[in-house]
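# step 3/5: fold
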Amino acid sequence: MDIHTPPTPESIRRRPGRDRRPARRRLRPAIALAILGLTLTASAAPAASTRIVAWGEGTSSKLGLGVNTASVLTPSALSGADEATETALQAATSVAVGAVKTYVVTPTGVYAAGSNLLNASGGGLGLGAAAGSGNQTAFTLVPGTTGVTKVAAGTDATLALRADGTVLAWGNNTSGLAGQAPGTKVYDPTPIPGLDHVTAIAAGFQNGLALKENGTVWAWGAKETLGVTPLAAAASAVPAQVALPDGLTATAIATGYDHDLVLLSDGTVASWGKNGNGGLGDGTTTPHYNALRTTALGNDSPIVALSAGGTSNSGASVALRQDGRFYGWGRNTAGQLGLGNGSANVSVPTLSPSTKAFTEISTGRVATFGLAADGQVWAWGSNAAGQLANGTVDAPAATETPTRVGKLNHVPWLATGATGSQQILPTGFVLQSGSSETAFYEQQLGTTSRAHRVTLSPFGDSSTIKRVRITTGGSAFQIVGIGDDSADLPITLPSQQVTNVWVRFTPSTLGEQTGTLEVTTDSEIVNVPLTGVGTPLTGGPKGDPGDKGDKGEDGAAGPAGPAGPAGPAGPAGKNGVVSFVTKKATTKVKRGRTATLAFTLKNGTTGRLARTTATATVPAALKATGRRSVLVNGLTAGASRTVRVTLKIGRKAAPGTRTVKVRIPWGATSIVTTTKVQVTR
C-alpha cells in the first residue's frame, strides 16, 4: 500500500530528541514508473528537462504507454496524449501505483492511466460515470483534483490528500474506503466527511489510514484494519481514531494489502490486521486487530520510515533506519525482503545483510525498490513482470540481493503503492536532445535542407549508442552523419559528453510532415520527434540567351546559337519574413534572482511555421541555471507568439551588463536576436 511520511520536516522526519535525523528517509510501496530528470552542462547547451519512464507489469494499460502488456522490461519514456498533458507530466511531484492503475500528481492536478472498471479489483480512476469501464491507455486529467498533493492508490478505492488537509476519494467502495456507505460506488473525487488537518494518507486493498497534524491516526474501511479489538462486526466508512500504545502519537503510517503499520513518537513500530506470513512482526502468524508494538527493531540506528505490501493475508513490511539500512518481515516468497535467507517468510523484524544506504524504500506486491543517496535506483524480489528492468523476466526470475536498475541516476523520489508491480520515477539518466534543431520549418518540394543536428548527451552514467535510424516519416528525413567526424557505431559517451546526429529534410508532399529519430543505447531507446513543412517548388527567372554553338569536330566554327526561350513563370512567391525581436532591450536582475527574457516571434509569411526550438547562448559570467532551450510551437501565417527564456542568475555572478543571444532555426537559415542582462547587487 502507499506509505507516506508526513509532509513537514518536523512532523515527518524528526522525533522528539532525535534532531540529528537526516532530512530524507522515506519508505514507499513498490511500483515501477520512473521520471528522468536530465540536466546538461552550459557548454553542451541542452536544456534541463524531465522525462517520466515506466517499467514492470503493464496489464490494464496502467503504465500509460498506450499498450496493455504483461510486462515492460526496460525503462520506457511516457508521453501525454496532448501537449498540455505532456507539460503537466514533466512537472510531476509524486506517483502512486496500484494493482491496475497509476496516478501522476502534478501542480495542475492528478493524471490517471489504467483500468476504469469499478469492482473489487480495480476501483476506477475517478473520471466520472460517463467515462465507461475500459482501460485508459494514456494519462488523462482526473477532474476536481487541483490542489491535490499526494495520492494513495488502494485497490478498491483511491485517496487523494489536498493542500488544505482534507481528503478526496473515489472507487468501488466495497468496504467504505471511499468514505461513503459501503457498497456505494463513487465515480468522482468526493470529500471524506470528518477528515481534516491531515498530513499523510495510505491505502491498501480495502483499508485506509490518515495521519493528522497532532500525530493521531485515523482508520476506516475493512473491519480487520480498523485498529480495534475485539474485531469489529462490520466494515466502516467513517474514519475513527486508533488507540496507539501508551497513548503515544505517530510520525509515519503505512498500509499493506490488509495490515497497517505506524511509526510511534518513541521510535518503535506498532501494527494491526491480518498476519498470515508474519507481516505484523510480533513473532507469530496470528492476527490481532488493535495497535500493538512489533518485536524490538534494535537500537543501533533510529527507524525513520515504513513501507508495506503483499497480498491477501500475506503482508510484507519494511522499516528503514537512519543509517540507510533496513529491516524486513512477513511475506518473502520472491526474496522481496532482501534478507539473504532465500524465500523464507519471517515473523520478526530482521536486518538485511545489504550495506547499501537507502534514503527511500517502496515495497509492493512481490518486489521492493530502493533509492540510494546518490540518486541510483535498486530493486530486489520478483522479476516476473520485468521489475528489475534488465530486459528479461527470467535472468534472474527473482533475487534477494539489491540490484541496480539500468543506468537510472539522479532520481529524486520513488513511486508508491503496496499492490503494484510497476515503477514510475524521476531520473537523471537518458539521452538529452534539448538543444537540437529538430524542426526544419519550410523546404521546397524535392529539395534538401541543410543538415540539422540532434544533440545527444547522458547526464548520469556513460551511454553506448548502438543504433540510429529513422522509424517514421518515410523518406522525408535522412541521417547524413553521426558525430563530428561521421563516426561509426557503436559510440560510447562518458557522462555529459555530447555528440550529434545530423539529419536532412527532403519533403515529397505539401504541408507539415513528421518523423521519428530512434536512438538505441545499451540501456534504453530514445525517440526524438522531427518536423518539417513542405512548400511548393518556385519557378526560375527568365531564361538566359543560348550559348554560342560549339565548333564542329572537323568543320568550320558554327554561327552563334539563337537565344534560349524564356523560362516559364514561377508561381507566386511567399511574401513577408519571419521576425524575432526582444521585447526589452535590458533586463535588470539581482544576483541569485530569476530573469525572464521575453521575445516576439512573428510569422510574416503566407505559410505555416513548424514547431522548432529557441536556444540561448548565455555568458559564463552570469553563472546562470535554467532552460537554455525552449520549445516553440508551430505558428500560422500572420500570427505571433511570445517566447520566454528563464534564467536563474548565480549568487556569485559579477555585477555588470552581459549580452545573451537567442537563436531560432528557420528554413535553411537561423534568426539570431540579442538582449542584455544587467546584474546588480
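# step 4/5: annotate
Residues 480 and 486 are 8 Å apart (CA to CA).
# step 5/5: archive (pending)
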